[in-house]
Amino acid sequence: MEIGLSTACFYPDALTEEALPRINTLGASMAEVFLETYSEYSVTFAKELKRGIGDTGIRVHSIHT
To answer: Which residues of the chain, if any, have pLDDT below 70?
Structure first.
């Protein structure tokens, strides 16, 4: 079994891009990215999320738009 968390779980204490490293520290291997605002629907933001994942090994299983 794999455990996954949504970035929405960290709202309003962490921005979407800050939530992925937090998910990693909690030991989850999968994440759902919950987009919250229009500015998050861009290639630039997607690249920022990818940098946030870095070498953590987290897999984004779904995106909630």
So the answer is: none
Q: pTM, whole model, 2 decimals? A: 0.81
> How far is residue 48's CA from residue 18's CA, in Å, rounded to a whole number?
10
Read out DSSP for the chain? ---EEEGGGGTTTS-HHHHHHHHHHTT-SEEEEE--SGGGSSHHHHHHHHHHHTTS--EEEEEE-
- pLDDT, residue 53, reads 84
| Cβ(58)–Cβ(33) below 8 Å | no
**23 contacts: CB under 8 Å, gap ≥ 6:** 5, 7, 31, 58
